Fold this sequence. Notes:
Elements: E1 6-11, E2 13-17, E3 21-27, E4 44-55, E5 63-68, E6 71-79, E7 82-86, E8 91-94, E9 99-103, E10 108-114, H1 116-121, E11 123-133, E12 144-148, E13 156-158, E14 161-167, E15 169-170, E16 173-174, E17 183-190, E18 195-199, E19 205-212, E20 215-217, E21 220-222, E22 226-230, E23 235-240, E24 244-251, E25 259-261, E26 264-266, H2 269-280
Amino acid sequence: MLTKPVSSLVSGQPTQDGNRVPLTRLVPGQGQPGDQAFQTMDPFLLMDHFGPMVLAPGTDAGFPPHPHRGFQTLTYLIQGAFRHRDSTGGSGLLRPGGAQLMNAGAGIVHEEMPVPEQLHSGGPIEGVQLWINLPKADKRTPPGYTDLQPESMPWTALPGGRIRVLAGTWAGVTSPARTPAKIAYAHLELEAGARFEHVVPAGWTAAVVPLHGSIRIQGTEVAADTVALLGAGDALALEAAKPVSLMLLAGEPLREPIAHYGPFVMNTREEIEQAIQDYQQGRMGHLD
């Protein structure tokens, strides 16, 4: 069995989003202009590691109402507590180890804010948001929301570590999340020196992203908040250079045109212009 080498390393870019929430933008990769950057890790469009941060008492930090169309978001919480609300009437409480899978489809307006008691008293917040592209045939489907509580995605023990499967199947464990794009996504924690190996379907995009600590892949060290995009081979194989917390990504490329503008990802610029008009005219709904 041939293990996948690192084909490229891309350091995450520190930035802010929402109401002054510090984050590291991990995907798309740098160095590609415009919409081409969103093809780098097809079918994954964007990945943000927000926090870790400690909210000050009385802060309004969070992600207030904003629209999306044409993809799914999978928001995974590591620390803190967030409340989700959207224009379809969907709502849910994100707790540590839980996630929300939101299908933006034809258009949705949502917010993700720390729970009121945390906004009042402060406290730690950390998580990862992943944008997953929708196939062209699904971009105008009705929007919706799936609440994924930590009890439905428990940690599974591994030699030298543990894994929480957020989508697809890893190490024989399958997530309850359902995505039109064929993907596998997980949070992996390993002790120093521990190894992890997993066969990836032929032709799939594969990447690993340490959040804390570092790993080695065929002698290449990958530091925290760095995306290691993997090359050809049968399996992903890595070793923890030090205690590490990382995200595993694999997915079948859609190989469809991508047009992107802010919170909208479609196939053509005309569809982007229509999305902007539909949002401005209230056709994606409202949050009261």
